[in-house]
């Protein structure tokens, strides 16, 4: 029969092999905790949430195993890429410049990640649509489609398994900086989104901090009870315990329908404890916190090991439940965090409205070496809507590349904007055989968010101009309260201001005419304003001219506000 493909039944599938590996890793982790249950699930303060090279986060199940994989192999940067992703790094840029070739190091082995893909087929016409398009349909329109899920296994490499550090040193330094950004969690650490969730009753059930000594989720009352934060040794311990109970609560009827009234100590109860432990450890890790095993869960360590060793399905069902539960928690926390950020003053709202100009990010650049025959035919017929629909299929979903993001879609002589909608634009250039630039549109606020997250090391000049605006606004807001002042060891008082034209922090003394600038320091947009000022302070303290009266054993310079 045409299209029939014989199924391989001679050995385990790639999914089975991946689950076997996951089970082995979980056994090793739980055995290590069994020896010392005071240790955290993940190495304290070591790693952020795993992402692919373009910055997209892995889901809960994959994130859990990739974190364990990083710990086992000693990887310091939890960023991963497929073989195809590595090859895409070797495509020449728009200027045709050949960069050093990026490759997987010889002898390195890949690691499996599991991804559920969905095929969406119309019940009557049998037309297929992409899952992203399906999700945008109304409920009535969705009812006209059959959706078929399929679990697929992809193989990925950690960036440390490539020569990226030598071939793309700037990208490597950026990845190192991103992974170095950790939440500073002191004794009185507070996590605003969760605090707001408790205060405003925004979780799927009530959360009741009460001055007592137990933390639990009540199935019958559908509520979480935890001790008050002040009763814990630090903020991390409070949130880690709360995340454990929040994961339990996702199993309630009408949510994930995972929980049934079971007796304490049963196999079902033990498995639910593992789901809550792994889920809460993942959630804590995502927000830069450390999660230790809950003392009540230690009684189940041996049972978990026995199930992992005896039942192949145990790891699969457990990890899927961890994935679903942790996703509900993080999506809710992220939504509240986003809403908190949006609660700004009218003045800030006016500024935001002024930032709605559109930027264009190149997501696919098709040259003569690419097959553009279909695009050419649609262009020649004048079917620009069809051309736009086809062009969108070249977008791989990786998002904004700040190096090729511009304030205008027209960047080269001969560029012609053929068509655009609210999300995409297609630019054609008839010179040198004809090229198509497929561009994704972003608001300036989205560009600003990207700068905050990734810096400007690879940014276009247009993006760097936005970064300068951001620095100028931040400095103006700071000086509205009080101008930054440096008190030097020899008693000199220096003032700082941001020079947008030169993109520098200028430092000097105050005069009747303003400020007499004595030093210029380049502004680093990969750091906060506070970090830039601190760096300037450190450099000033190294200068001999301010150390003449310094008694090193007794004094030191500092930043005053």
Topology:
Elements: H1 14-35, E1 51-52, H2 60-73, E2 79-81, H3 83-88, E3 111-122, E4 128-129, H4 131-135, H5 139-142, E5 145-158, H6 164-167, H7 169-180, H8 192-199, E6 207-210, E7 216-218, E8 223-227, H9 235-249, H10 267-286, H11 301-310, H12 312-342, H13 346-353, E9 358-366, H14 373-381, H15 384-392, E10 405-406, E11 415-420, E12 424-429, E13 435-443, H16 444-454, H17 461-481, E14 485-487, E15 493-499, E16 504-511, E17 514-522, H18 529-542, E18 558-560
Parallel strand pairs: 1-2, 6-8
Antiparallel strand pairs: 2-5, 3-4, 3-5, 7-8, 9-10, 9-13, 11-12, 12-13, 14-15, 14-18, 15-16, 16-17
Organism: Bacteroides finegoldii
GO molecular function: single-stranded DNA binding
Domain Polyvalent protein metallopeptidase: 211-315
How would you explain this protein's 3D organization?
The chain is of the alpha+beta class and 561 residues long. The protein folds into four domains: 46-180, no CATH class; 192-342, no CATH class; 353-451, no CATH class; 482-560, no CATH class. It has helices at 14-35, 60-73, 83-88, 131-135, 139-142, 164-167, 169-180, 192-199, 235-249, 267-286, 301-310, 312-342, 346-353, 373-381, 384-392, 444-454, 461-481, 529-542; strands at residues 51-52, 79-81, 111-122, 128-129, 145-158, 207-210, 216-218, 223-227, 358-366, 405-406, 415-420, 424-429, 435-443, 485-487, 493-499, 504-511, 514-522, 558-560. The strands form four sheets. A five-stranded mixed beta sheet has the order 1-2-5-3-4. A five-stranded antiparallel beta sheet has the order 10-9-13-12-11. Strands 17-16-15-14-18 form a five-stranded antiparallel beta sheet. It is globular, with a radius of gyration of 28 Å. The relative contact order is 0.08. The model is unreliable at 1-9 and 550-561 (pLDDT under 50).
């Amino acid at each position: 029969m045409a299209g029939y493909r014989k199924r391989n039944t001679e050995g385990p599938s790639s999914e089975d092999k991946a689950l076997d590996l996951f089970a082995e890793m979980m056994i090793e982790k739980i055995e290590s905790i069994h020896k010392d249950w005071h240790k955290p699930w993940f190495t304290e303060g070591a790693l952020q949430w795993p992402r692919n090279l373009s910055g997209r986060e892995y889901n809960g199940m994959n994130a859990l195993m990739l974190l364990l994989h990083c710990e086992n192999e000693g990887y310091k940067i939890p960023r991963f890429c497929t073989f195809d992703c590595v090859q895409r790094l070797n495509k020449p840029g728009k200027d045709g410049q050949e960069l050093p070739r990026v490759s997987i190091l010889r002898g390195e082995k890949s690691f499996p990640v599991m991804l559920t893909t969905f095929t969406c087929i119309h019940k009557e016409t049998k037309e297929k649509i992409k899952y992203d398009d399906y999700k945008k349909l109304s409920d009535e329109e969705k009812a006209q489609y059959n959706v078929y899920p399929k679990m697929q296994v992809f193989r990925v490499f950690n960036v440390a398994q490539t020569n990226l550090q030598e071939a793309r040193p700037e990208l490597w330094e950026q990845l190192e900086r991103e992974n170095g950004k950790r939440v500073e969690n002191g004794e009185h650490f507070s996590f605003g989104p969760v605090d707001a969730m408790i205060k405003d009753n925004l979780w799927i059930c009530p959360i009741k901090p009460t001055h007592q000594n137990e933390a639990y989720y009540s199935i019958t009352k559908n509520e979480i009870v935890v001790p008050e934060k002040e009763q814990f040794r630090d903020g991390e311990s409070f949130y880690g315990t709360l995340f454990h109970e929040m994961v339990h609560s996702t199993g309630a009827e009408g949510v994930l329908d995972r929980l049934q009234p079971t007796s304490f100590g049963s196999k079902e109860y033990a498995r639910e404890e593992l789901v809550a432990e792994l889920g809460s450890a993942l959630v804590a890790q995502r927000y830069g916190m450390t999660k230790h095993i809950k003392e009540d869960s230690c009684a189940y360590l041996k049972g978990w090991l026995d199930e992992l060793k005896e039942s192949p399905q145990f790891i699969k069902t457990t990890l899927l439940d961890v994935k679903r539960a942790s996703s509900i928690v993080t999506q809710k926390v992220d939504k509240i965090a986003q809403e908190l950020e949006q609660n700004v003053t009218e003045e800030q709202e006016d500024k935001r409205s002024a930032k709605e100009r559109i930027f264009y990010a190149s997501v696919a650049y098709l040259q003569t070496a690419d097959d553009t025959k279909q695009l050419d035919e649609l262009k020649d017929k004048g079917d620009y809507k069809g051309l736009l629909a086809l062009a969108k299929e070249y977008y791989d979903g990786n998002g904004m590349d700040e190096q090729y993001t511009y304030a205008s879609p027209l960047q080269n002589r001969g560029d012609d904007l053929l068509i655009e909608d609210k999300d995409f634009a297609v630019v054609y250039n008839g010179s040198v055989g004809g090229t198509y630039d497929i561009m994704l549109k972003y608001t300036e606020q989205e560009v600003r968010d990207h700068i905050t997250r990734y810096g400007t090391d690879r940014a276009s000049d247009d993006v760097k101009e936005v970064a300068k605006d951001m620095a100028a606004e931040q400095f103006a807001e700071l000086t509205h309260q009080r101008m930054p002042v440096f008190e030097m060891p020899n008693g000199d008082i220096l003032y700082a201001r941001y020079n947008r034209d030169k993109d520098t922090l200028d430092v000097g003394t105050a005069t009747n005419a303003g400020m007499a600038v004595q030093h210029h320091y380049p502004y680093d947009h990969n750091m906060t304003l506070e970090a830039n000022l601190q760096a300037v302070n450190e450099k000033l303290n190294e200068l001999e001219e301010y150390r003449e009266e310094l008694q090193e054993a007794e004094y030191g310079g500092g930043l005053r506000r």
